Amino acid sequence: MILKDIVDAITPADNDEKDARTVLERKFDGVVDLSDEEISHLAELQSESNGFAANKDVVEAGEPADLTLILIEGWAYRYKTLEDGKRQIVSFLIPGDFVNLYAALFDEADTSVRTLTDCQFAGANPDQMLEIFKTEPRLAALLCWSAGEHDAILAEQIVRIGRRSAYERIAHLVMELLIRLEHVDQSSGDSFEFPLTQEVIGDTLGLSTVHVNRTMKRLRNDGLIEQNNGRIAIKDTRALADAAQFDRDYLERRRVPHSLMSRIFDS
Protein backbone atom coordinates (compact mmCIF):
# COMPACT_ATOMS: atom_id res chain seq x y z
CA MET A 1 0.00 0.00 0.00
CA ILE A 2 1.50 3.31 -1.03
CA LEU A 3 -0.21 5.26 1.76
CA LYS A 4 1.82 4.49 4.87
CA ASP A 5 0.34 3.20 8.11
CA ILE A 6 1.90 6.16 9.90
CA VAL A 7 -0.78 8.55 8.63
CA ASP A 8 -1.71 11.03 11.36
CA ALA A 9 -5.18 12.53 11.50
CA ILE A 10 -5.05 16.19 10.63
CA THR A 11 -8.07 18.44 10.37
CA PRO A 12 -8.26 19.81 6.83
CA ALA A 13 -7.71 23.54 6.57
CA ASP A 14 -10.72 25.73 5.90
CA ASN A 15 -11.30 26.58 2.25
CA ASP A 16 -10.04 29.97 1.18
CA GLU A 17 -13.09 32.23 1.33
CA LYS A 18 -11.69 34.33 -1.49
CA ASP A 19 -11.35 31.39 -3.88
CA ALA A 20 -13.58 28.36 -3.54
CA ARG A 21 -12.00 26.63 -6.54
CA THR A 22 -10.24 23.32 -5.98
CA VAL A 23 -6.47 23.30 -6.25
CA LEU A 24 -6.53 21.45 -9.59
CA GLU A 25 -9.01 23.93 -10.99
CA ARG A 26 -6.67 26.75 -9.99
CA LYS A 27 -3.69 24.87 -11.46
CA PHE A 28 -5.30 24.20 -14.84
CA ASP A 29 -7.48 27.30 -15.16
CA GLY A 30 -4.57 29.28 -16.60
CA VAL A 31 -3.82 26.53 -19.12
CA VAL A 32 -7.21 26.00 -20.79
CA ASP A 33 -10.76 27.22 -20.31
CA LEU A 34 -12.30 24.41 -18.29
CA SER A 35 -15.88 23.32 -18.84
CA ASP A 36 -18.25 22.80 -15.90
CA GLU A 37 -18.09 19.04 -16.52
CA GLU A 38 -14.29 19.05 -16.47
CA ILE A 39 -14.29 21.08 -13.25
CA SER A 40 -16.63 18.50 -11.75
CA HIS A 41 -14.33 15.63 -12.79
CA LEU A 42 -11.32 17.38 -11.25
CA ALA A 43 -13.29 17.93 -8.04
CA GLU A 44 -14.08 14.20 -7.88
CA LEU A 45 -10.37 13.37 -7.96
CA GLN A 46 -9.89 15.56 -4.87
CA SER A 47 -13.09 14.71 -3.02
CA GLU A 48 -11.43 12.60 -0.32
CA SER A 49 -8.07 13.27 1.27
CA ASN A 50 -5.87 11.96 4.06
CA GLY A 51 -3.78 14.00 6.46
CA PHE A 52 -0.06 13.49 7.00
CA ALA A 53 2.03 15.14 9.68
CA ALA A 54 5.23 16.95 8.74
CA ASN A 55 8.39 14.91 8.20
CA LYS A 56 6.64 11.65 7.35
CA ASP A 57 7.28 9.38 4.38
CA VAL A 58 4.20 9.13 2.20
CA VAL A 59 5.85 7.00 -0.49
CA GLU A 60 9.01 4.91 -0.38
CA ALA A 61 11.02 4.12 -3.51
CA GLY A 62 10.43 0.53 -4.57
CA GLU A 63 6.92 0.34 -3.12
CA PRO A 64 4.01 -0.65 -5.35
CA ALA A 65 2.85 2.40 -7.30
CA ASP A 66 -0.80 1.63 -6.67
CA LEU A 67 -2.18 5.18 -6.32
CA THR A 68 -1.82 8.54 -7.98
CA LEU A 69 -1.61 11.12 -5.21
CA ILE A 70 -2.60 14.77 -5.51
CA LEU A 71 -1.18 17.23 -2.99
CA ILE A 72 -4.09 19.35 -1.76
CA GLU A 73 -2.43 21.30 1.06
CA GLY A 74 1.11 21.70 2.36
CA TRP A 75 4.60 21.07 1.01
CA ALA A 76 6.41 17.80 0.32
CA TYR A 77 9.44 16.67 -1.65
CA ARG A 78 10.72 13.79 -3.77
CA TYR A 79 14.08 12.37 -2.78
CA LYS A 80 16.60 9.57 -3.22
CA THR A 81 18.80 8.13 -0.48
CA LEU A 82 22.25 6.71 -1.22
CA GLU A 83 23.70 3.65 0.47
CA ASP A 84 25.84 5.86 2.73
CA GLY A 85 22.70 7.68 3.95
CA LYS A 86 23.20 10.86 1.94
CA ARG A 87 19.97 12.37 0.63
CA GLN A 88 19.33 14.13 -2.67
CA ILE A 89 16.09 16.08 -2.86
CA VAL A 90 14.94 15.92 -6.47
CA SER A 91 12.00 18.33 -6.46
CA PHE A 92 9.47 20.06 -4.24
CA LEU A 93 5.75 19.35 -4.31
CA ILE A 94 3.27 22.16 -3.78
CA PRO A 95 -0.55 22.11 -3.90
CA GLY A 96 -1.81 20.79 -7.24
CA ASP A 97 1.20 18.55 -7.89
CA PHE A 98 0.88 14.84 -8.63
CA VAL A 99 2.80 11.88 -7.23
CA ASN A 100 2.97 8.75 -9.40
CA LEU A 101 0.81 10.34 -12.08
CA TYR A 102 1.23 7.29 -14.29
CA ALA A 103 0.84 4.70 -11.53
CA ALA A 104 -1.16 2.50 -13.89
CA LEU A 105 1.92 2.07 -16.10
CA PHE A 106 4.60 1.30 -13.50
CA ASP A 107 4.89 -1.41 -10.86
CA GLU A 108 7.01 0.55 -8.37
CA ALA A 109 7.57 4.10 -7.22
CA ASP A 110 10.96 5.37 -8.43
CA THR A 111 11.48 8.02 -5.74
CA SER A 112 10.47 8.47 -2.13
CA VAL A 113 8.13 11.29 -1.09
CA ARG A 114 8.28 12.96 2.32
CA THR A 115 6.15 15.71 3.82
CA LEU A 116 7.87 18.97 4.63
CA THR A 117 4.85 20.44 6.43
CA ASP A 118 1.50 19.01 7.51
CA CYS A 119 -0.14 17.87 4.27
CA GLN A 120 -3.38 16.70 2.76
CA PHE A 121 -3.18 14.19 -0.11
CA ALA A 122 -6.04 12.91 -2.25
CA GLY A 123 -5.63 9.53 -3.93
CA ALA A 124 -6.89 8.20 -7.26
CA ASN A 125 -6.56 4.55 -8.20
CA PRO A 126 -5.23 3.49 -11.62
CA ASP A 127 -8.73 2.69 -12.92
CA GLN A 128 -9.85 6.26 -12.23
CA MET A 129 -6.87 7.68 -14.07
CA LEU A 130 -7.30 5.30 -17.02
CA GLU A 131 -10.96 6.29 -17.26
CA ILE A 132 -9.93 9.91 -17.71
CA PHE A 133 -7.70 8.94 -20.63
CA LYS A 134 -10.55 6.93 -22.15
CA THR A 135 -13.38 9.42 -21.77
CA GLU A 136 -11.92 12.87 -21.08
CA PRO A 137 -9.31 13.67 -23.74
CA ARG A 138 -8.93 17.31 -22.69
CA LEU A 139 -8.27 16.38 -19.07
CA ALA A 140 -5.90 13.66 -20.26
CA ALA A 141 -4.02 16.33 -22.23
CA LEU A 142 -3.82 18.45 -19.08
CA LEU A 143 -2.35 15.55 -17.12
CA CYS A 144 0.28 15.11 -19.83
CA TRP A 145 0.91 18.86 -19.72
CA SER A 146 1.46 18.58 -15.95
CA ALA A 147 4.03 15.83 -16.51
CA GLY A 148 5.76 18.02 -19.09
CA GLU A 149 5.92 20.92 -16.62
CA HIS A 150 7.50 18.58 -14.08
CA ASP A 151 10.10 17.48 -16.65
CA ALA A 152 10.99 21.13 -17.32
CA ILE A 153 11.47 21.73 -13.60
CA LEU A 154 13.70 18.67 -13.31
CA ALA A 155 15.79 19.87 -16.26
CA GLU A 156 16.35 23.20 -14.52
CA GLN A 157 17.31 21.35 -11.33
CA ILE A 158 20.06 19.52 -13.24
CA VAL A 159 21.40 22.78 -14.67
CA ARG A 160 21.05 24.49 -11.30
CA ILE A 161 23.20 21.93 -9.50
CA GLY A 162 25.64 21.32 -12.34
CA ARG A 163 26.42 24.80 -13.62
CA ARG A 164 25.36 27.50 -11.18
CA SER A 165 27.23 28.99 -8.23
CA ALA A 166 25.81 28.59 -4.72
CA TYR A 167 24.50 32.17 -4.86
CA GLU A 168 22.82 31.54 -8.21
CA ARG A 169 21.42 28.17 -7.10
CA ILE A 170 19.57 29.53 -4.10
CA ALA A 171 18.39 32.66 -5.91
CA HIS A 172 17.16 30.52 -8.81
CA LEU A 173 15.29 28.12 -6.51
CA VAL A 174 13.57 30.99 -4.70
CA MET A 175 12.47 32.52 -8.02
CA GLU A 176 11.19 29.16 -9.26
CA LEU A 177 9.15 28.59 -6.12
CA LEU A 178 7.64 32.07 -6.36
CA ILE A 179 6.39 31.50 -9.92
CA ARG A 180 5.09 28.00 -9.17
CA LEU A 181 3.21 29.19 -6.10
CA GLU A 182 1.75 32.15 -8.00
CA HIS A 183 0.18 29.71 -10.45
CA VAL A 184 -1.87 28.04 -7.70
CA ASP A 185 -2.59 31.22 -5.71
CA GLN A 186 -0.25 30.26 -2.88
CA SER A 187 1.78 33.48 -2.77
CA SER A 188 1.05 36.98 -1.57
CA GLY A 189 2.66 39.49 -3.85
CA ASP A 190 6.34 38.59 -3.89
CA SER A 191 6.25 36.72 -0.57
CA PHE A 192 5.30 33.17 0.30
CA GLU A 193 5.53 30.46 2.92
CA PHE A 194 9.10 29.15 3.05
CA PRO A 195 9.34 26.00 5.20
CA LEU A 196 12.76 25.00 3.83
CA THR A 197 15.46 24.50 6.44
CA GLN A 198 19.11 25.04 5.61
CA GLU A 199 19.58 21.27 5.62
CA VAL A 200 16.73 20.81 3.13
CA ILE A 201 18.13 23.54 0.87
CA GLY A 202 21.57 21.93 1.08
CA ASP A 203 20.24 18.49 0.18
CA THR A 204 18.40 20.03 -2.76
CA LEU A 205 21.26 22.08 -4.17
CA GLY A 206 24.30 19.98 -3.23
CA LEU A 207 25.56 22.46 -0.62
CA SER A 208 26.65 22.15 3.00
CA THR A 209 24.48 23.80 5.65
CA VAL A 210 27.35 26.19 6.38
CA HIS A 211 27.48 27.22 2.73
CA VAL A 212 23.70 27.64 2.62
CA ASN A 213 23.76 29.79 5.76
CA ARG A 214 26.50 31.99 4.37
CA THR A 215 24.80 32.37 0.98
CA MET A 216 21.37 33.17 2.42
CA LYS A 217 23.02 35.85 4.53
CA ARG A 218 24.58 37.34 1.37
CA LEU A 219 21.20 37.43 -0.35
CA ARG A 220 19.71 39.23 2.65
CA ASN A 221 22.62 41.66 2.92
CA ASP A 222 22.35 42.42 -0.79
CA GLY A 223 18.75 43.48 -0.20
CA LEU A 224 17.28 40.73 -2.41
CA ILE A 225 15.31 38.72 0.15
CA GLU A 226 13.92 39.01 3.65
CA GLN A 227 12.94 36.10 5.92
CA ASN A 228 10.60 36.25 8.88
CA ASN A 229 8.32 33.79 10.69
CA GLY A 230 8.63 30.99 8.15
CA ARG A 231 8.05 33.24 5.14
CA ILE A 232 10.33 34.73 2.54
CA ALA A 233 9.83 38.06 0.79
CA ILE A 234 11.61 38.97 -2.41
CA LYS A 235 12.59 42.62 -2.06
CA ASP A 236 13.71 43.14 -5.66
CA THR A 237 12.35 40.50 -8.03
CA ARG A 238 14.21 41.75 -11.10
CA ALA A 239 17.53 41.94 -9.26
CA LEU A 240 17.06 38.45 -7.81
CA ALA A 241 16.21 37.06 -11.25
CA ASP A 242 19.31 38.74 -12.70
CA ALA A 243 21.48 37.34 -9.91
CA ALA A 244 20.14 33.84 -10.63
CA GLN A 245 20.28 34.19 -14.42
CA PHE A 246 16.65 33.13 -14.15
CA ASP A 247 14.64 32.68 -17.34
CA ARG A 248 11.02 32.10 -16.37
CA ASP A 249 9.96 30.80 -19.79
CA TYR A 250 10.05 27.17 -18.65
CA LEU A 251 7.35 27.99 -16.10
CA GLU A 252 5.34 30.48 -18.13
CA ARG A 253 4.60 28.46 -21.26
CA ARG A 254 1.28 27.58 -19.71
CA ARG A 255 -1.39 28.19 -22.30
CA VAL A 256 -2.15 25.10 -24.40
CA PRO A 257 -2.85 26.24 -27.99
CA HIS A 258 -6.59 26.55 -28.58
CA SER A 259 -6.22 24.82 -31.95
CA LEU A 260 -4.76 21.74 -30.27
CA MET A 261 -7.43 21.59 -27.56
CA SER A 262 -10.13 22.06 -30.21
CA ARG A 263 -8.83 19.08 -32.18
CA ILE A 264 -8.72 16.98 -29.01
CA PHE A 265 -12.22 18.08 -28.02
CA ASP A 266 -13.65 17.39 -31.47
CA SER A 267 -11.96 14.00 -31.88
Structure report:
- The protein has 267 residues and is of the alpha+beta class.
- It has a domain at 1-150: Jelly Rolls (Sandwich).
- It is 43% helix and 19% strand.
- It is built from ten helices and twelve strands.
- It has helices at residues 23-29, 36-45, 126-135, 137-163, 166-183, 198-205, 209-221, 237-244, 249-252, 258-266, and strands spanning 49-52, 57-59, 68-73, 76-81, 87-93, 98-99, 112-115, 119-124, 187-188, 191-193, 225-228, 231-234.
- The strands form three sheets. Strands 1-8-3-6 form a four-stranded antiparallel beta sheet.
- A hairpin with a 2-residue loop joins strand 9 (187-188) and strand 10 (191-193).
- The longest helix is centred in the middle third of the chain and has 27 residues, at 137-163.
Question: What layout of secondary structure does this protein have?
Answer:
Elements: H1 23-29, H2 36-45, E1 49-52, E2 57-59, E3 68-73, E4 76-81, E5 87-93, E6 98-99, E7 112-115, E8 119-124, H3 126-135, H4 137-163, H5 166-183, E9 187-188, E10 191-193, H6 198-205, H7 209-221, E11 225-228, E12 231-234, H8 237-244, H9 249-252, H10 258-266
Helix pairs in contact: 3-4, 5-7, 5-8, 6-7
